[in-house]
Amino acid sequence: MEKQKNGELSRMFGYAGKFHVLTVLGCVLSGISTILSMLPFVCIWLVIRDLIQAFAAGDISLATGSAHYAWMAVVFAAASILIYYIALNCTHLAAFRTATNMRKSAIHHIVTLPLGYFSQNASGRLRNIIDDNAGLTEGFLAHQLPDLTGAAVMPVAVIILIFLFDWRLGICCLIPMGISVIFLKQMMGGDNAQFMGKYMTALETMNKEAVEYIRGIPVVKVFQQTIYSFKNFHAAIEEYEKFASGYALKCRIPLTGFTVTLNGTFVLLIPVAMFILSGVSGQAAYENVVLDFLFYSLFTPVCATMMNRIMFASEQLMAAKSAVSRVDEILQEKPLKEPEHPLIPADASIVFSDVSFAYPGTKEKALDHISFEVPTGKTVALVGASGSGKSTAASLIPRFYDVQSGSVTIGGVDVRNIEKQELMKRVAFVFQNTCLFKDTLLNNIKAARPDATREEVLKAADEAQCKDIIDRLPDGLDTLVGTGGTYLSGGENQRIALARAILKDAPIIVLDEATAFADAENEHQIQLAFERLTQNKTVMMIAHRLSTIQDADLILVFKEGQIAERGTHEELVALNGIYSSMWKDYQTSIAWKVGKEDEQHD
Ligand SMILES: Nc1ncnc2c1ncn2[C@@H]1O[C@H](COP(=O)(O)OP(=O)(O)OP(=O)(O)O)[C@@H](O)[C@H]1O
Known about the structure:
- This protein is of the alpha/beta class.
- The protein folds into 2 domains: 264 residues, Up-down Bundle (ABC transporter transmembrane region fold); 252 residues, 3-Layer(aba) Sandwich (Rossmann fold), CATH 3.40.50.
- The chain is 64% helix and 10% strand.
- The radius of gyration is 36 Å and the shape is elongated.
- It starts with 7 loop residues before the first helix and ends with a helix.
- The relative contact order is 0.08.
- The N terminus is likely disordered.
- Bound molecules: adenosine-5'-triphosphate.
- Adenosine-5'-triphosphate binds next to helix 12.
- Keywords: ATP-binding, Membrane, Nucleotide-binding, Transmembrane, Transmembrane helix.
């Protein structure tokens, strides 16, 4: 993976676009607000000094400046709050824009990636990276970054105040701050600097496994299992717990040191003040030391608060840096390579020439030197045991993956030399699991061809035998389906998928186990829809139900990534090999089923 040249912060600014100016402005304002927030302490000190001096002189009316200083304190405090409010508005605006742009960039990029990327990266993980990480960055830029800038101004202000009042007491304030930085470094530096990346990976894995677990809840319920049967989820929780508690344990001592040091400033301040007092003589000098001590007493908690803010902001900075890197990881994934000189296929024939393919990250070949031809308008059926490579072969036609050796051609052109849009126009793919978006049925079917009219959608739905579904739904074609919408059965979902494919009217149809989830009634309707869909098309079809493929022009029997047998139904039955025994098994199962039904009718 290409290494990012710029730091994470500048990449965050990159996402903000022109809005990054607002982040900078917000940080500057936050710094000004911090300085202003210290001035009331100076004013209060001046009020106290005025009062003490007047009191010592025995005439309280001499404290003429007190009211003035008190008002100044109010004005500075109000100005500090107002400026901080404006600062946060600026940083929030920029943060919202940054997070939105991060999400948009990732989502726009993701749709350009080969489909195979999604089988390697679970949806739970991707959602976590895109959504949660953008949220994390938003929180950091909106709140912690301006606080961090404000906090960075603090030591400078303390140093100035050291010279303004008593440098010895000022140093007493600075020493704990300095020591607390050492503890802070222990918490955030060394091995712990890598912690946030590992922690977020553990969190992503846990999210991914949680999604898998929730998807599998029906299995858990039906088979009376417990969470422990989902070992991966359990392991992910334990891994997460290991990181979280491991980090907490590592931070135990430095965090205690940090808190104690910051809150223990008085341990230094009081003896040093007493030491200074022992060295002065005269009431005025005595009063001055007490007044200076009072100032630092007031000021110490402000230093502690600031250092705490720095600590939380530093932690958030680690998280935000890691978040940006994760989103960048997605953006660096290579999109599907577009051909430099795209070619147009002459027809809808498909040719696999000596194709071999192994899934990314695996050594085992899912397809091993596969060759076959499907002339335009003909049907090829792929059969074979589970895991024999049928779906893999089908997925190479629309370039869900690219072959590693050999070639897949459509109309004489290698699919890698066909423009993505052109390829998608030519191939309609009906998946094993049909995904319906949370939208109306109309829009779900229209996804295949967004410019289709309502009439065209209705015609396609009718041809896909969806009329009964539309009539049954409360708002017909305008009924909301998909997650949270009206429920459709597996077979009904597949008929909708077939309606989509009919509407698309692509010359090549790839059907992946289109009847797998259907009951008898649905299967009959799917069969009718399928016949309509495949008229005059080149068809590649994967089916376990041998009844649906007897008329195929070519049947390929897959075994461990290779084609073990090929021919028409009759030829393969006569061959007395794998297909013939599959066919016998199928015949037996049909006979058994018919026998059962007869028994029930008797
Ligand atoms: N995304 C993937 N990553 C890694 N290996 C995979 C992936 N998808 C499939 N495989 C492996 O590739 C081989 C072929 O799988 P494929 O899904 O093509 O078989 P299939 O014949 O279609 O099986 P089924 O009938 O069960 O769908 C199997 O060993 C499978 O485990």
